[in-house]
Design brief:
The protein is mainly α. The chain starts with a helix and ends with a helix. The longest helix has 20 residues. The chain is about 75% helix and about 0% strand. It is built from nine helices and no strands. α1 packs antiparallel against α2 and α3 crosses α6.
Length: about 160
């Protein structure tokens, strides 16, 4: 099996099974991630890893519900990387590539740890989806924009969609 995002998407869908809400969330974040990253000119190597991370960013949520009866980001970050490693084990990713994907999954709610453009884009894409799914109010959206949005592409999407 190759390391294409399509192969990872299939693994994610199989992992979540009948949890269509979680599958749809991951696919929406993936779509925004790919769009933002392409327009922000990430390299093809960075884009592939970021797409994989976007597809798996909430992979820890199912186990968090089972172990902690919670979907809190803290538990997703704690449990997600090990699940991701299992799902990625038979792909052609180097250890460094796997660790970057797992870092993004393991910190995607820890905004103070954003360390590069790929991480920034993942956070922005997740917010673009969460704003709609959580039916956030204009004041919340304005606060999120001012605190967390940095790329021109994501800012334009946010304004065009929600402001």
């Amino acid at each position: 099996m190759n390391n294409s995002p399509a192969a990872v998407a299939l693994k994610m869908i199989q992992y979540f099974g009948h949890d269509v809400r979680r599958i749809n969330h991951a696919l929406k974040v993936y779509g925004f991630t790919k769009h933002i990253a392409t327009l922000e000119k990430l390299s093809s190597e960075q884009l592939t890893l970021l797409e994989i991370a976007a597809l798996l960013h909430d992979i820890g949520i199912k186990e968090a519900e089972k172990q902690y009866q919670s979907t809190a980001g803290t538990y997703q970050e704690l449990l997600g990387p090990d699940i991701a490693r299992e799902l990625l084990a038979d792909l052609n990713l180097s250890e460094t590539e796997t660790e970057r994907v797992c870092y993004l999954i393991g910190h995607h709610h820890s905004y103070h740890k954003i360390d590069a453009l790929d991480f920034q884009i993942l956070v922005e894409a997740d917010f673009l989806v969460n704003i709609f799914e959580d039916q956030m109010q204009p004041a919340q959206i304005e606060n999120i924009q001012s605190k967390y949005f940095k790329t021109a592409t994501a800012i334009n999407l946010l304004i065009g969609m929600y402001r």
